[in-house]
Design a protein that fits this description.
This protein is mostly beta strands. The chain has 2 helices and 30 strands. Strand 29 and strand 30 (about 385-395) form a beta hairpin.
Length: about 400
């Protein structure tokens, strides 16, 4: 205890005629105080509380790895504390957001001196994709991790086509890809498409142990570019492929006196009966395409377009094109013929508006993903006349014809 000056206290006592420090306020003590004497008085002082208390160890993170997996597996969870656990360890309580399909221990104890702990998450199989949290609490803090359980066979990860442009009446492959191998019996993928535009089977099955399945689909005839989509669904997950359907045709118009089309105008469109085929050569530098409608013998036409030697057929205007360019001239090639007629020699030009080629096969340079060009041709034997037209192709397997089932 420390001693303090009691002078002010004595003055208060005298003023109130209260006995302070003795049996009588008029006694020796009061008289001494009145005379200015102030003997020391002891007053108790509260103890020093010391520094504020230190907060306990808390949880700072919780992770489950992997966080996306097939239901029925056991995976590991890891948690981290804000500091090393004290001598008695740190208890972390655990919980599952869906205890019917995923269980965790009620709690774990992080050993003294450690700052991390591990636990097991035990799961059941699920019929559809299911997501929920695994949480841990310590020191008044809670941390959680969302996990996603997949059904056996996984879910759809992608729906793919070789090109986002499909040619009317032309076949193209559609591939469904899963996130995990299909279980026994395979995984059924349901398909739907825009009615009246795309023809797809209702179901595509990924075989047991596989992750991919492919089917051939066909776009129906259209007169102009038409947007379309295909949707696939399995195990609660959906994917959609957005596509464009192009008309596939050769269109020709001619002036009077033209020896090839003889002043006529017509168009051959892809249809169930029409046959489109051809080849790509010279490193995708030379295109030869033909169209034939067996229902109309006059609708058999072909177009040959080639960039100057050594160059690919890319968008641009190709002037001074010849049916037979002089050797070493470096000129492009253009020839339009059909119905049993063609130019002996010709001049002209063509403009490639779009071009995209797929991989080659069987000795050919490539396949057509999409190609669009306009052309003008004049036979040298008929000056002053002209044949003009447009060719538009998409998803054509070059080097084969539909009549040969390719």
């Amino acid at each position: 205890m420390r001693r303090v000056n009691a002078g002010p206290l004595l003055l208060v006592c005298l003023a109130l005629a209260i006995a302070c420090g003795g049996p009588d306020a008029t006694g020796p003590t009061a008289q001494g105080a009145a005379a200015g004497s102030q003997p020391p008085v002891s007053v108790p002082v509260p103890p020093d509380p010391g520094p504020p208390p230190v907060a306990g160890v808390t949880i700072t993170s919780l992770d489950v790895n992997p966080s996306v997996f097939i239901g029925g597996q056991n995976v590991q969870g890891t948690l981290t504390l804000s500091d090393a656990a004290p001598a008695e360890g740190t208890i972390v309580t655990l919980s599952s957001g869906n205890a019917t399909i995923a269980t965790v221990p009620p709690s774990i104890t992080v050993a003294a001196g450690a700052s991390t702990g591990r636990f097991q998450v035990q799961t059941q199989t699920v019929p559809t994709e299911t997501s929920f949290d695994i949480a841990g609490t310590a020191g008044g803090a809670t941390r959680a991790k969302t996990i996603r359980l997949m059904p056996p066979g996984g879910t759809l990860s992608a729906l793919l086509t070789a090109s986002d442009v499909i040619g009317a009446e032309q076949p193209i492959e559609l591939t469904a890809r899963l996130t995990a191998p299909a279980p026994a019996g395979g995984t059924r993928v349901t398909l739907t498409a825009d009615a009246g535009v795309l023809s797809v089977p209702p179901v595509l099955t990924v075989p047991e142990g596989g992750t991919n399945a492919t089917v051939t689909i066909t776009a129906r005839s259209v007169l102009s570019e038409t947007p379309a989509s295909i949707s696939a669904r399995t195990n609660g997950e959906s994917r959609t492929a957005a596509l464009r359907i192009w008309p596939v045709f050769i269109q020709i118009a001619s002036t009077t006196g033209d020896p090839v089309a003889r002043g006529r105008s017509f168009r051959v469109d892809a249809s169930p009966s029409a046959i489109f085929g051809g080849e790509m050569w010279d490193g995708n530098g030379r295109l030869q395409v033909s169209a034939n409608d067996p229902s109309d013998a006059s609708k058999w036409w072909a177009v040959i377009m080639a960039a100057p030697p050594g160059r690919p057929l890319v968008p641009g205007t190709y002037r001074d094109a010849r049916r037979i360019p002089p050797i070493g001239s470096g000129l492009p090639t253009l020839e339009v013929y059909g119905d049993g007629r063609g130019c002996n020699l010709s001049t002209g030009e063509f403009e490639v508006l779009e071009s995209a080629f797929g991989p080659g096969f069987g000795g050919y340079s490539g396949s057509i993903q999409r190609f669009r060009a306009t052309f003008k041709q004049t036979c040298t034997e008929a000056p002053g006349t002209q044949l003009t037209g447009e060719v538009r192709l998409a998803t054509i397997l070059m080097g084969c014809k539909k009549s040969r089932n390719c």
